[in-house]
Write a structure and sequence with these properties.
The structure holds two protein chains of two kinds.
Chain A: E1 5-14, E2 17-27, E3 32-37, H1 43-51, E4 58-63, E5 67-70, H2 82-86, E6 93-94, E7 97-98, H3 100-113, H4 129-141, E8 147-151, H5 159-174, E9 178-182, H6 186-192, E10 195-200, E11 203-209, H7 215-223, E12 239-249, E13 256-265, E14 268-272, H8 279-286, E15 292-298, E16 302-305, H9 309-313, H10 320-325, E17 335-336, E18 339-340, H11 342-356, H12 372-384, E19 390-394, H13 402-417, E20 421-426, H14 429-435, E21 438-443, E22 446-452, H15 458-465
Parallel strand pairs in A: 3-9, 3-10, 5-8, 8-9, 14-20, 14-21, 16-19, 19-20
Antiparallel strand pairs in A: 1-2, 1-4, 6-7, 10-11, 12-13, 12-15, 17-18, 21-22
Helix pairs in contact in A: 11-12, 12-13
Chain B: H1 3-9, H2 11-28, H3 33-45, H4 48-73, H5 81-98, H6 103-132, H7 136-156, H8 190-207, H9 209-219, H10 221-226, H11 231-258, H12 269-279, H13 284-308, H14 313-338
The chains are: A alpha/beta, B mainly alpha.
């Protein structure tokens, strides 16, 4: 069989780093091909080259038919309707005017053919995340691609949505589309992909049939060795640290309704939920950034790992040293007289980089030059450096590779073990199940259920996350 | 990055480009560039008096440029330095005309009055932004016109000097004149104050908590807010300080140069200062150098008009070109960086 997409000898260098270094890849019609690797391994660069967004320095890209790409961060226009988004730039028209009836019919037809129920007239910003992704997918499918590239397609989906998403993908492949999924969720690779390609430092280090490998083997190939285990859970004394009751805040879909929560020192409480169910409102209320009614009682110091490291946690043009002071600059210990204590800041930076294995040329380079994983580790290290008694961790391992994620999770577990209260808000259910002593399921701004560690029930939690009891 | 953009982006390339464009402007104005440049430099630096006038212009530009720098660093586009400078000068002139205290105290009081006047003018815009979310660009720009009309109204009536012919306050008692720095010229020790202020600001930005908060707010407002910085308070404070610095500048023009307040006292220093601050890359010490460069243009331009028949407006064309070249440089640099992973 002829491959639908052929990459030969692809090389792409950016100043200071060779992102992709001599990669060959074939995608065959009907296969689901997983591309995995640590942050900075070159996956995103390679898929951008395959899609034609980036030109390689060397090598050739040959595609038989169109190539479609579904982005990790949806590129939709929220204030337009579904059909307007799907057909953007290709609207059927009668003379000068868009033929709306024909457009809606066309979108319905693609949707039905692919088993993706949708209302073509709905405004995109009123749709849940899983349905928005369907819109993205439909937009690509309308162009009848021979090759479909999916970049972290399930990052924001609930377990049930993930299943129905993959049902569609499997069906597409069965009809002859060549599919490549860039992901770091190895369970999905094993469950749905036919072949897997592992990249490390810009090179392909392993290609295999998924039937002939395992999650552990893939993880080892990605890291180039053993994945460090997460720190063990120690027995702890529980002391009350955070008490939340009758909390109402925010508005619209992410409004909190009589939310309640207790986190004690020495435990990790996980908030399970699909993105957009009020987690951000909760985090902002706890951080004192928005108005609320109800009770929030917290004792002791607080360390925060915000959700969006680039926008909320870092000043991208600043050095590592300056960034380690952010959020800590008003403490007495940060000052010496009128000046910031720069010696102290440098010592702290060194400690953070050592504990979280942050890799940077030196402490004075701008953090924008670091990889996303190293930026995240810096943010985590900063939140923990002063040994806070309460830690608010919001997606602490988002977009971080397997090895770094294990390190971040270990540091959170160690904070718990030394007696800190840790509130873990995460869209990765597996992360919550691995770390938490207690899980609260959040749906539409309210508590829908809670589980102790000895009574974790993955299926039940997944159902509650989707809103069904 | 291709070859031509690499050349434009280099600092040497920018200087060469500026000289070429200036030469073109002179040719268009009907003068040989050689004569033009000679007239410009002789007029600006050719003698004691010329150097004095260049440094007077440098000082007049440096204060508002430093004020603008402070606001820009906080991410606030204060383009109201002209009005802030004018109100500062008005307050200093009005106070100086009625003072009866010893000289040094009087001068200090006048400078403080300038800071309060300019600061209040900046604070209005800051309050509008922090309280109502008003755009500070529009607010500061419009307040320039309010300041000009307000000053004219006052010095045409209640504050008009008893013997004054035009719209100006009474002359200051010579004991309230800032001491001369270069005897025989109009240059006062205000230049030293401006340089000291630049050093102070450099230190504030680089070393202090306030400077850190200010820069964080300018670079990444959301991250700054989450780090515990009260953005509303900082906006208000930054625009107030920015206006106060421009206002002190206005006071030094009154006390050091004109010895009275006159509505014509600034030929647009507050606007040119925006270019000075940007050319100086918002770094106080570089701004000192940029102010000197623009001071040469300001004072040499007059001489160029007199001896080489290049209209003084050509200087404004040149100032505009310099800003364009530097903006292009930054744009090219951003595009190049934008291609990084």
């Amino acid at each position: 069989m002829e491959p639908a997409l052929t990459l030969r000898g692809i090389r792409k260098a950016f100043p200071g780093v060779v992102a992709v270094d001599g990669v060959d890849l074939d995608l065959y019609p009907g296969e689901i091909h997983a591309l995995v690797g640590e942050n900075g391994a070159g996956k995103s660069t390679l898929s951008a080259i395959a899609f034609g967004e980036l030109l390689p320095d060397a090598g050739t890209v040959t595609a038989r038919g169109t190539v479609g790409l579904v982005h990790q961060h949806f590129e939709l226009i929220g204030r337009l309707r579904v059909w307007q988004n799907v057909l953007l730039g290709r609207e059927p028209h009668k003379g000068w005017r868009i033929d709306e009836a024909a457009a809606r019919a066309q979108v319905l037809a693609i949707a039905q053919r692919n088993g993706l129920p949708i209302d073509p007239n709905a405004f995109v910003d009123t749709l849940p995340i899983g349905v928005q992704q369907r819109v993205e997918l439909l937009r690509e499918l309308d162009r009848d691609p021979a090759v479909l590239l999916l970049d972290e397609p399930t990052a924001a989906l609930a377990p049930a949505e993930i299943e129905s998403f993959f049902a569609t993908v499997v069906q597409l492949a069965a009809r002859g589309t060549a599919i490549m999924i860039v992901t770091h969720k190895l369970q999905e690779v094993i469950a749905y992909a036919t072949r897997v390609t592992v990249m490390r430092h810009g090179k392909v280090v392993e290609r295999t049939l998924t039937s002939a490998t395992s999650i552990d083997a893939i993880a080892r190939a990605m890291v180039g060795g053993e994945v460090p285990p997460v720190a063990a859970r120690a027995r702890t004394e529980l002391t009350p640290r955070l008490h939340v009751k009758d909390l109402c805040a925010g508005r619209g879909a992410t409004q909190l309704n009589d939310f309640f929560l207790d986190v004690r020192g020495g435990e990790i409480v996980g908030i399970a939920g699909v993105e957009g169910n009020g987690q951000s409102t909760l985090a902002d209320a706890l951080a004192g950034l928005i108005d609320y009614t109800g009770i929030i009682e917290r004792s002791g110091t607080m360390g925060i790992i915000p959700q969006d490291r680039q926008r909320e946690a870092l000043v991208m043009n600043w050095s590592l040293v300056e960034n380690t002071l952010l959020g800590r600059q008003h403490r007495k210990a940060a000052r010496r007289g009128l000046e910031l204590d720069r010696v102290r800041a440098r010592v702290d930076t060194a400690a953070i980089c050592e504990r979280l294995d942050v890799r940077a040329a030196n402490f004075d380079v701008a953090v924008r030059t670091l990889s996303g994983g190293n930026q995240q580790k810096l943010v985590v290290g900063r939140a923990l450096i002063d040994e806070p008694q309460f830690v608010l961790a919001y997606n602490p391992t988002r977009g971080v590779d397997v090895g770094a994620a294990a390190l971040v999770q270990s540091r959170l577990m160690e904070a718990r073990n030394r007696g800190a209260a840790v509130l873990l808000i995460s869209f990765e259910l597996d992360e919550i199940l691995a770390l938490a002593d207690h899980v609260i399921v959040m749906y539409r701004g309210a508590v829908l259920g809670s589980f102790d560690r000895d009574a974790f029930d993955r299926a039940a939690i997944g159902r509650l996350m989707a809103g069904s009891a | 990055m291709n070859r031509s953009s690499r050349i434009v982006a280099g600092p040497l390339g920018a200087i060469v480009l500026i000289v070429v464009l200036m030469s073109l402007a002179m040719i268009v104005a009907g003068t040989s560039p050689l004569d033009g440049f000679r007239a410009l430099f002789v007029g600006a630096l050719g003698g004691r008096n010329e150097i004095g006038e260049t440094l007077v212009a440098t000082t007049a530009l440096l204060f508002p440029a430093l004020g603008i720098c402070l606001a820009f660093r906080a991410g606030l586009f204060n383009i109201g330095a002209e009005g802030q400078l004018l109100i500062g000068a008005l307050c200093a002139g009005a106070l100086g005309a009625v003072l009866t205290v010893p000289g040094p105290i009087g001068i200090t009081l006048m400078l403080i009055a300038g800071a309060i006047g300019g600061g209040a003018w900046g604070a209005i815009a800051g309050w509008m932004k922090a309280r109502f979310g008003a755009n500070e660009i529009i607010a500061t720009l419009m307040l320039n016109f309010v300041a000009a009309a307000f000053a004219l109204e006052l010095v045409s009536g209640p504050l008009k000097g008893p013997l004054a012919a035009g719209a100006e306050t009474a002359w200051l008692d010579p004991k309230y004149w800032l001491p001369a720095l270069l005897p025989g010229t109009r240059l006062s020790i205000a230049l030293l104050f401006a340089l000291a202020l630049a050093l102070l600001l450099q230190w504030v930005f680089a070393r202090t908590v306030f400077g850190y908060d200010l820069r964080a707010s300018g670079e990444a407002p959301e991250a700054a807010r989450r780090s515990g910085i009260n953005l509303g308070r900082l906006t208000w404070l930054a625009l107030t300080l920015s206006g106060a610095i421009a206002g002190v500048g206005g006071a030094t023009i009154v006390s050091g140069e004109l010895h009275r307040f006159n509505t014509q006292l600034s030929p647009g220093y507050g606007f040119t200062a925006i270019a000075v601050a940007l050319v100086g890359d918002l770094q106080p010490l570089w701004i000192c150098l940029a102010a000197f460069g623009f001071g040469i243009l300001e004072s040499g331009g007059l001489a160029m008009q007199a001896s080489a028949q290049v209209p003084k407006d050509a200087i404004h064309v040149i100032e505009g070109l310099i800003i364009l070249v530097l903006a292009a440089r930054r744009y090219v640099a951003t595009r190049v960086e934008g291609t990084l992973p």
